[in-house]
Design goal:
- The structure is a single chain.
- This protein is of the alpha+beta class.
- It is built from 15 helices and 11 strands.
- It folds into 3 domains: about 110 residues, no CATH class; about 150 residues, Jelly Rolls (Sandwich); about 80 residues, Arc Repressor Mutant, subunit A (Orthogonal Bundle).
- It is about 50% helix and about 15% strand.
- It has a 4-stranded antiparallel sheet with strand order 1-8-3-6. The chain has a 4-stranded antiparallel sheet with strand order 2-7-4-5.
- Helix 5 crosses helix 6, helix 12 packs across helix 15 and helix 13 packs across helix 14.
């Protein structure tokens, strides 16, 4: 039988596209008549071709082994090509190496997800990349390979800082209606919202709920409480399925002390929260009427950058109860105000979609 010269198992594992499958296949094929037949044919060819020069191997023979490897996944044929790449005969070695490079190029073209990147990391397979969580969200296993991040996100750090954050954080997926933390609770850490929406609210002693804002992807939740080590000032509840990244308070403090970039990002986000609180107080307290507050709320949900003459469709409009909690009113009042806005032809309802017909009129009402 043939014995591959200079054969090393590590070389085979490194060069074969599917080493585990070929090894198992070779073991099975070694017991079959077809495999033995092909091996005998190659053995006879080897004897004829190597009679004049024991070191030289005919290129046509190597090409036949290459085809047998590719078409029948014959491990012994693969061994022939691999061993020939270490042959002391220059022409044989060069030809075998060109065949191996051709095989590797085909693997890259057919399975690009299995090819290492510049850092030596393999990309996820097609099956893994297409995996979804039960809530229809992309799985994020590491911040380093995250595709959710966008300009303006809290987590838009440099690679070095992002690696430190990734080591100290924990990824999770939450369904809609999950409570992340409760007003008055001792802070455990911060949540970075990768995707989804989170409702932030506060409750009076009488049990009246006021929704302060709806956090969007890229925001960080609980930052001020975690840094100051004071109780959470609001309750955070997921309004939709969410991807979250949690950083414990002690790990957060270590990152702030060791990474200046983390401190700058945190200061910017605290400043945004401070300015947003002022705007909310102005809108809530200084608005002339409940209808003005509701008009402001509807306009805040409308997309920006569109022509004023166009109608605006709000497909993810809130319920009447949620609108009431946003403007500090009752559900009955919101229902009555929406009816008045429809009569004035400022808005209309199309099923679950609220359409702003007259944006200019609604802005005049919100002043």
């Amino acid at each position: 039988m043939l014995v591959a010269r200079n054969y090393q198992p590590s070389n085979l594992v490194r060069l074969l596209p599917e080493p585990a499958r070929l090894s198992a296949l070779a073991e099975d094929l070694s017991r079959s008549e077809a495999w033995r037949g092909r091996s005998l044919v190659r053995e006879e060819a080897w004897t004829v071709l190597s009679h004049d020069n024991p070191e030289a191997i005919d290129p046509l023979y190597l090409f036949a082994c290459q085809l047998e490897w590719e078409q029948h996944a014959d491990a012994s044929a693969a061994w022939e090509v691999i061993s020939a790449a270490r042959n002391p005969h220059a022409d044989t070695c060069a030809h075998a190496r060109s065949l191996l490079e051709r095989s590797q190029q085909q693997v890259k073209e057919q399975h690009p997800e299995d090819v290492p990147d510049e850092q030596g990391h393999r990309r996820s397979s097609t099956a893994e990349a297409g995996m979804r969580t039960p809530y229809g969200l992309e799985i994020i296993e590491s911040c380093m390979g995250c595709k959710m991040s966008r300009p303006g996100f809290f987590c838009r750090f440099s690679p070095a800082v992002l690696r430190s954050v990734d080591e100290d954080s924990h990824h999770s997926v939450m369904p809609a209606g999950a409570v992340l933390f409760v007003e008055g609770q001792t802070p455990r850490g911060v949540f970075i919202l990768c995707s989804g929406k989170v409702k932030l609210s506060t409750t009076s002693k009488e049990g009246k709920v006021l929704i302060l804002k709806q956090a969007e992807a890229g925001e960080v939740l609980g930052l001020s409480a975690a840094i100051s080590s004071t109780n959470y000032e609001m309750t955070a509840e997921t309004a939709s399925p969410c991807q979250l990244n949690f950083i414990g308070r002690q790990d957060l403090m270590n990152l702030l002390q060791n990474e200046s970039e983390m401190g700058v990002h945190s200061a910017l986000w605290l400043s945004r929260e401070f300015q947003g609180a002022y705007r909310d107080i102005h809108d809530l307290v200084l608005a002339r009427s409940s209808s003005g507050k509701l008009a402001r709320l509807l306009l805040s949900c409308a997309p920006t950058g569109l022509q004023e003459s166009r109608e605006l469709h709000l497909r993810s409009v809130m319920t009447h109860e949620e609108m009431a909690q946003r403007i500090g009113s009752s559900r009955e009042t919101v229902t009555r105000l929406l009816s008045d806005l429809k009569k004035k032809r400022l808005i209309r309802l199309e099923g679950a979609t609220l359409v702003i017909r007259d944006r200019t009129g609604l802005e005049a009402l919100a002043v």
